[in-house]
Amino acid sequence: MKKVFFVLVALFVLCAFVSASEVIILKVNVQLANVRSEPNLTAPVLTQLKMGTMLEASGKKGDFYEIAVSDESGKISVGYIHANTVEIVQAEGEEHAQPQEQPEAVQEQAVEKEAAEKEAVEEAPKTEVQEPEAEAKAETEYAPPRTGIGLIVGYAMPSGYGGGLAYGASFSFGFSSNFGIEIAGLRFQSAVDEPAEADRETALSKGKLTVMPVQLSLVARFPLSPSLTPYVLAGGGYFLNKYALDSGVQGDWEDLGFTISEKVENSIGFHFGAGLDVFMGSNLAVGAVVKYCMSTTKGKWTMNETVSKVEASGELKDLKLKPFIIGLGLKYFF
Fold first, then answer.
1. How do the residues of the chain divide into helix, strand and coil, expressed in percent and rounded to 5?
2. Of the four listed, 91, 175, 224, 303, which is most buried by Cβ atoms within 10 Å?
3. Residue 224 domain flag
4. Region 59-74: what's the mean pLDDT?
5. Number of domains composing the chain
6. What is the full DSSP assignment across 241-273?
7. For 303-334, how does the pLDDT look when each residue is reduced to its tens digit (9 = 90+)?
8. Measured torsion, CA atoms of residues 324, 168, 165, 266, in degrees rounded to the nearest 10
9. Is 8 within a domain?
């Protein structure tokens, strides 16, 4: 009885070993096929295999076969090739196909056909990489939801005022591969020139205007590839505004016996724009963005006569803030 038990165990182990050693024989059926580091279409390409290359696959994960590839130094690593780029020559459990002897004429025709196919491959444009339609389409359209943080540095050009350096940060959340929201905060300063004589009572005097818009945007993305995503955005925000009167102007009034001050109020605004994200990896992207903002605010000026303590005041109306912002950004997605 014990002998029978040991024989059965030995047969079971032998069968398991034979089954584990079986592989899937594949043949590349496109001009060039990508071998990726992971079984997904966004993974980096390790190498490319020419049409007719024979492969041994140890298994399958999703739509990808797992194979062994070597780099230029000869190092062996695991790679994954899409099922649409290969055809199965021998599946698991099938016996190895034995080559059959062919008549001399048939062998000669086979040699001529192989030579013609090789010549056609060599004459094909080297810059074109042909992959099966399914994989190429998937690579073009694939773009998972993206959530991340970013930094932006650029230049703001407010309408009617001087331009200045702009900088800020953003947080984005993707509902899908095409739609999401973004919250961004910016800060920039603009030089305000002396107003015309007719506008002195309703416009800001010479000084510096600081604007900090906090903006909420609806973002529509249009992925062209896993590494290139243009987008458009639009939304509204709240403008935190602060004005500082030029020290020279203030000194001139003080010499005449007056103290003067000007203040501006915060305001609500709207914006729209477009941008482009270029992914340097699965998590890091650099990009560019342009925004046009629209906001109208108001303020107040006061003037005090130093000796008599007489005070005069007035309103600053229809102060238009229309900055056009050009920026470069760095984003990290998680």
1. 20, 55, 30
2. 303
3. yes
4. 84
5. 2
6. EEEEE-HHHHHHHHHTTEEEEEEE--EEEEEEE
7. 898 888 888 888 888 888 889 999 999 999 88
8. 60
9. no
